[in-house]
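Limitations

Structures in this collection are predictions, not experimental determinations, and the ligand pose is part of the prediction. Treat each record accordingly. The example that follows, with flavin-adenine dinucleotide as the small molecule, is included so readers can see exactly what is and is not provided: the inputs are given verbatim, and the output is the predicted complex.
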Amino acid sequence: MSEAGPAGTGSEAGSEAPGFVIVGAGECGTRAALALREAGYDGPVTLVGTEIHTPYERPPLSKDAIAADMPEPKTIGGADGLAERGIVFRPGVTVVSLDRAAQVVVLSDGTRLAYHRLLLATGARPRALPVPGIDGPNVATLRGLEDAARIRAALGPGRRLAVIGGGFIGLELAASARRLGTEVTVIEALPRLLSRGVPEEVAGILAARHEAEGVRLIFGARIVEVTGDGVALEGGITVPADLVLVGIGAVPETALAEAAGLAIDNGIAVDDRLATSDPAIFAAGDCAAFLHPGYGRRIRLESWRSAQEQGTLAARNMLGAEQPVSAVPWFWSDQYDLTLQIAGLAEGSITTVRRPVGEGFVLFHLGPEGRLLAASGVGPGNAVAKDIRLAEMLIARGAHPDPEALATVPNLKKLLSA
Amino acid sequence: MAWIRACSADDIDEEDVARFDHDGRTFAIYHSPDGEFFATDGLCTHEQIHLADGLVLDNIIECPKHNGRFDYRTGEAKGAPVCVDLNTYKVKVEDGEVFVDV
Ligand SMILES: Cc1cc2nc3c(=O)[nH]c(=O)nc-3n(C[C@H](O)[C@H](O)[C@H](O)COP(=O)(O)OP(=O)(O)OC[C@H]3O[C@@H](n4cnc5c(N)ncnc54)[C@H](O)[C@@H]3O)c2cc1C
Ligand code: FES
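Predicted complex:
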């Protein structure tokens, strides 16, 4: 398909009809660009990204890029994948404004770029912690390659890391920092780790493992300030640290959309086809809150696989496919040799069924009338992967599996044909 | 090239996979839903992850780590995040024993 927009809508290149412009060269935007080509579109595609790098995978940044000194980041779609497919990639360039009436975006280098369809894949940025001293030179957040390089350089034997926030990125970094011999303290405001979206039993396994590995966990902490010596807590405790990592979640990057008057709802608001309130503009990935037909409301995910799936779906829908979102949310995290995987959203669950799997276990979360809503598993290596994947398929079907079978059937695949 | 015995045909259920290590290399042996056997490299081409921990659905093996998918009959990578194909190896079954041409 090579549909083009109305000729000359503000295009200063003039000769070529405006094609697809993608804002943000992360997991989602890059996958979207590749997917446009996979779907057979051979018109102009421009991928604009603030970062100067060839698009790379973010998940290793808290894992092997720290713990195993991964020399080169893993690129998305191969080092030359974009060029080989005739995708114009503009690294180190930010889209600074969006003129919806003219269907033009303005880039930080002054270029005006006309679009027929625009995809906003601007991702998320680390949430800021409003305490005194937070802008000090010993404070870091982790989102990009430069952050990871800087953090890694500050870790090692004899160094002390304080992680503010017992969420995924902080805990993964804590594990990686321990691998390098760093002294690590995790400071959490709530009474337990991973209180958002992870069942208590699973979080408990991870907490126990961190403690066994020598990480100090402080719960219910109130931070007074960050100083050159570390983190001062209410009650007079100071956690000494050479580096303070703030990992208290991420906020969607919506400024461009907001300034252009697009609807916002904890992220750029899109429908079940990932279209924004302007039908020429789509949004996907960490920046987007999308209407999930399976939940009947908008959700925003910060998940690598969702970013890929949404990028691919947005590309197809920008070409007119009209396909609704259907994927079940899925997430994983690696800490030490433990892998956690979660499929679905557990909220609204009434009962939990536990299934031992090797040295790990899977919890199935069942809702009203026994419908399977989510599954969370943790174990060494990939012990729980198969069962989580099968659970994901059951969730997608709206299955009401027999709880007894979930707990004990030797092969969960049997339940798929039930 | 040499035929090496990997396992008994009974060791792998239909629509399932098993790991086979030989001479410092690792392979994945598949038993397809229609009863045929296939073999590929044992590790995913995205990261070094054993595919035998993954799920077999029809002719697809899904990597357990990030769900990269391959057609195990041809080794073809079926989309993100995997883009490099797997090597495949010839398999024969004799007297209920599975042999791989490594
Ligand atoms: C350290 C770390 C570890 C993670 N580990 C896991 C994990 O184990 N499992 C998991 O499921 N998920 C993980 N994630 C989350 C996953 O990486 C994200 O969900 C995914 O990267 C989201 O993709 P995205 O393209 O939506 O956003 P991003 O990857 O953030 O990409 C957005 C890009 O847009 C650019 N941009 C923003 N605004 C503009 C603009 N105006 N103009 C041009 N460019 C712009 C940004 O610079 C950025 O490069 C991790 C994330 C991090 C940071
Ligand atoms: S390791 Fe196989 S898909 Fe990533």
